[in-house]
Amino acid sequence: MSANTETASGYAKSAIQKTALIVGIVFLLVGIAGFIPGLTHSAEHLHSVGADSEAHLLGVFQVSVLHNLVHLVFGVAGLAAGARIRNSRLYLIIGGVVYLVVWIYGLIAVNNDQINFLPVNDADNWLHLGLAVGMILLGIFVSRPTRVDRPDARSPRA
User: Fold this and answer.
1) How far apart are CA 151 and CA 18, in angstroms?
2) Suppose 31 and one of 11, 46, 71, 100 were both cysteines; which one would form an S-S bond, judging by CB atoms 3.0 to 4.6 Å apart?
3) How far is residue 96's CA from residue 111's CA, in Å, rounded to a whole number?
4) pLDDT tens, 56-93?
5) Please, what's the b/e burial string for 47-77 (b: 16 or more CB within 10 A of its CB; e: otherwise)?
6) Cα–Cα distance between 92 and 63 in angstroms, integer?
């Protein structure tokens, strides 16, 4: 890949940049929703960290202030990544790897309140695995420029 196609600027011009932007917006919305009573059941029991937070986004996903802040940070990172093709691809792939690590952490932490600081429950674990796989696949497969799409590609002469 030429340096031009992977570092080209122009906010959300390519499919991969738009994908990173959309993923970032979704993370922002989820992070904000985690603080809103009604969307977050038992929001009055939202703790800053730990498994004792009884708040559940949509009544399913256990959240805390820290958990919501992580979503907000991932959202802002997605918005920032949308400025460049390379950053968008890295955001999706590295973000997916981070969520894969969070999924592994969740498998261990879900039944151990002493290490479940994020907090996570079984529903969170399935979601984190889906996010990991989805983000990595999006980062790998969304609109890789083909040889003829690259500005430095030369047509073969007959």
Assistant:
1) 21
2) 71
3) 24
4) 999 999 999 999 999 999 999 999 999 999 999 999 99
5) beeebebbbbbeeebbbbeebbebbbebbeb
6) 23
Tens of pLDDT, residues 20-47: 999 999 999 999 999 999 999 999 999 9
The radius of gyration of the chain's CA atoms, rounded to the nearest angstrom, is 19
Tokens of residue 88, six digits: 């968008």
Dihedral over alpha carbons 145, 150, 156, 157 (to 10 degrees)? 150
First-last CA distance in the chain: 25
Q: Which amino acid is at 90?
A: L
| Other Cβ atoms closer than 10 A to 26 | 15
